[in-house]
Specification:
The protein has 316 residues and is an alpha/beta fold. The protein has 10 helices and 15 strands. The protein starts with a strand and ends with a strand.
């Protein structure tokens, strides 16, 4: 029978347009585990939609960590009592959820709920973006938005793969954090500041607009630019001759949920990322930790770029 739970819901009358309200949780499908959620993290895309465009009643949320309460009826996935990290298309900001068994991964004991909750969208996006570069050992990689939720993980993953990593930031106060992630910090108003350090084998772009335009002119022959965000703007212009004249260069548009359907299920990458934390090769930067009833305030602060790194909320 469906049960009543509490979840974050878009409410135009609530502070920050987000409120915790009673909702109905349907019975799980045969390939779904039931999870009691202990921590969630916020991503700019889902938060912007919730605060700015979503209809009242929509339930946001992609990232969660928690404890399995019921096993999948088809025998897949972890057993009850197992700590997991996972990903939903929406609705993860709730005290209980149902999730496909292929979209969760078992957590090592040393990985905290807060660390795990940062991994699904940001970590998997970084992982799939870097995989477009193939073997990175000894190759130059440039990451823009390097102090952000995806950027700081991408810098660490690229460094762990043996790449020579540059991370672009626009503010001096972000330099130390990027360098702590194993990257050489490039400071400048636009991504063109990185040009003297190139050309690059792989460029990971989350900004779009002028950053994407600059990136397409800084690739080495057969290099790749992966783009997945438009936080600077949705329209880019670039010098076509500089792009095709380099020879063999590629522009790859990455949408995470497409990757998870066509390339690799979420649970596989999440397990890898959690094991890298366990091995101390990956360290999520958590800027804000708070109870989940502060969701409206923290969401607004995220959209207003009041902090870098990830925001994690704990469900009590």
């Amino acid at each position: 029978m469906p049960q009543t739970i509490r979840a974050v819901v878009v409410d135009a009358a609530a502070p920050g347009r987000l409120a915790i309200k009673p909702v109905e949780l349907r019975d799980p499908d045969r390939d779904e585990v039931g999870v009691r959620v202990t921590a969630i993290s916020l991503n700019r895309g889902e938060t912007r939609r919730a605060l700015q465009v979503a209809e009242p009643g929509w339930r946001p949320g992609w990232d969660f960590a928690g404890i399995v309460e019921s096993a999948a009826a088809d025998g897949t996935g972890p057993k009850p009592g197992t700590r997991v990290v996972g990903l939903l298309p929406s609705g993860a900001w709730a005290e209980r959820i149902n999730c496909r068994s292929h979209a969760v991964a078992v957590l090592p004991d040393v990985v905290s709920d807060a660390e795990a909750a940062t991994l699904p969208v940001a970590g998997l996006t970084a992982l799939h973006a870097l995989r477009q570069g193939g073997l990175l050992l000894g190759r130059k990689v440039l990451i823009d938005g390097a102090s952000g939720g995806v950027g700081h993980l991408a810098c660490q993953l690229a460094a762990a793969a043996g790449a020579l990593v540059w991370g672009h930031v626009r503010r001096e106060e972000h330099r130390a954090a990027v360098e702590a992630c194993g990257a050489r910090a490039v400071l400048g108003r636009d991504l063109g500041a990185a040009k003297p350090h190139g050309p690059f084998w792989l460029i990971v772009d989350s900004l779009g607009a002028s950053a994407l335009g600059a990136a397409l002119g800084m690739l080495q022959p057969n290099g790749t630019c992966v783009t997945f965000g438009v936080s600077e703007g949705p329209t880019a212009t670039f010098e076509s001759r500089d792009f095709f004249g380099t020879g063999g260069v590629k522009l790859y548009g990455l949408t995470l949920f497409h990757e998870l359907m066509s390339v690799e299920r979420a649970g596989i990458g999440l397990r890898l990322l959690a094991e890298l934390i366990e091995a101390k090769k990956l360290r999520p930067q958590i800027a804000v930790e708070a109870p989940w009833d502060e969701i409206g305030t923290i969401g607004r602060r995220l959209i207003d770029r009041e902090f870098t790194g990830k925001a994690v909320l704990h469900i009590r």
